Amino acid sequence: MLELDHIDAGYGAGQVLFGVCLTVNAGACVSLMGRNGMGKTTTVRTIMGQLPLLAGRISRFGDARPARPSFDIARAGIGLVPEGRQIFSNLTVRENLQTFFRPPADQSGTSWHLDRVLDLFPRLAERLDHAGNHLSGGEQQMLAIGRALMTNPKLLILDEATEGLAPIIRSQIWDCLQRLKQDGQSILIIDKNLDAIARLADHHYILDKGRVVWHGDSKSLLATTDLKSRYLGV
């Protein structure tokens, strides 16, 4: 689904990523972790074509063209739930979802549509005609995830999936992501909840100062006791 091969990226003259390697296979859930300012969102923006590659190679679904516009990358099958949600506040829940609908490229599988998103997030069904800025933070996050699913993505990327949400809402989001994984959705997720990430994801990468300093499976993540204090703690 996605392969980052020793990529360098940054903003203008300021380099942020240094030789980052990362792989997401079909049907897998992969996490990207690290303290704030270590390059996680920069990685996502580079994947989405919002930042140019300074070096290295990105292969998306087997296509490794070096320079592609963001809209082309999204159309290829990457659905993004951005940091800060970024829903359209002046549109209703229904409009936010329907505006983003795109039929799946492969018609043989199960597709995402309005009713299926509302089944995943029943709270949104109760708020269909409410404007985005009238939703709670948790409802906005559900809407942001549902909006990305309406594009029928082959790969779903979530940047800070549960940041700033109440514990009960975070639990609901994790449950929904578990359902997506069980349905075979490929996922790349950024979050700070180590225990929840370990339960959900198959493989994990930790960034520190723009470099991958550790990667491995959930068993290794939980067994390596100094990782949290060295790379994930405040």
Biggest sheet: strands, sense, closure? 6 strands, mixed
Mean pLDDT: 93
Q: Which runs of at least 5 residues are low in confidence (pLDDT < 50)?
A: none
> What is the CATH class designation of the domain at 1-70 and 191-234?
Alpha Beta
**N-to-C CA distance:** 32 Å
Percentage of residues in DSSP E strands = 25-35%
What is the fold-level CATH name, i.e. the topology of the domain at 1-70 and 191-234?
A: Rossmann fold
Succession of helices and strands: EEEHEHEHHHHEHEHEEHH
Q: Based on the structure, what is the oligomeric state of the protein chains? A: single chain
> What level of helicity do the residues show?
25-40%
Counted beta strands = 9
Structure write-up:
The chain is of the alpha/beta class and 234 residues long. It has a domain of 114 residues: P-loop containing nucleotide triphosphate hydrolases (Rossmann fold), CATH 3.40.50. It has ten helices and nine strands. A six-stranded mixed sheet has the order 5-6-7-3-8-9, with helices on both faces. Strands 2-1-4 form a three-stranded antiparallel sheet, covered by helices on one side. Helix 3 runs parallel beside helix 6. The mean pLDDT is 93.
